[in-house]
Amino acid sequence: MIFSLARRPSATRSFLAATLCALAVPVVCAAEPPAAPAAAVNPQIEQAVAALRAITTLQADFVQTDRNGQRLTGVLSMQRPGKIRFQYQAGIPLLIVSDGSALTLIDYEVRQVQRWPIRNSPLGALLDPNKDVARFATLNPTGHSEVISLDVRDPRHPEYGSITMIMLKKPGAPGGWELTSWVALDSQNRRTTVRLSNQRYGLALPSNTFRWSDPRSTGRK
Fold first, then answer.
1. Cβ within 8 Å of residue 49, ≥6 positions away
2. CA-CA distance, 121 to 135, in Å (whole number)?
3. Tens digit of pLDDT per residue, the chain (221 long)?
4. I want to staple 146 with a disulfide (CB 3.0 to 4.6 A). Which of 49, 132, 169, 192 is the partner?
């Protein structure tokens, strides 16, 4: 079932509060200890990471589902490094945008804006160009040579949550692998599943794609 704020404001807002927390997790930044010596990386992990880094721009339809099966739909736009936009379905006055340095959650109904560093979110594995994804990745067995399941979590920072990405082998996708879905889990074990479809690569996205209207004023960010 797809919800509309106009019809079920309380239930929908509670649902959104839980699911969006698994996309943008507010945490306190900690100093990073010295990096440990690099270990050998599984070839499939290297392939998956190379495919993610080969994306210049991506636009896709998405379905976002919480652990109770409630769904929202919308359009995702991504430009590496660091930029993403979740444009939700009509009737949902929320927007998530990353401008390359921080994730911003804008709630137009209550005129609130919240921002968090990309690196402190599960989405950092997708967006942060400085994040060594291979270093924190674990390959999940799928039993299929054309499916990669990659779990990314930083053991030193469990408060950042984790993300499990599913990629399918596809010759036309950058790097030969297409990101089809991910499951984000925050430090409170709130789970959000995002499934992509109709992926389009290499689009010339408008310059204002990763900007947003500030509901607290008439200016633009």
1. 133, 134, 137
2. 16
3. 223 333 334 444 544 544 454 454 433 333 344 444 455 678 898 899 889 889 999 999 999 998 888 899 999 999 988 899 999 999 999 999 988 878 899 999 999 999 887 766 667 667 765 667 777 788 999 999 999 999 988 777 777 778 899 999 999 999 999 999 999 887 777 888 999 999 999 999 998 999 988 888 755 55
4. 169
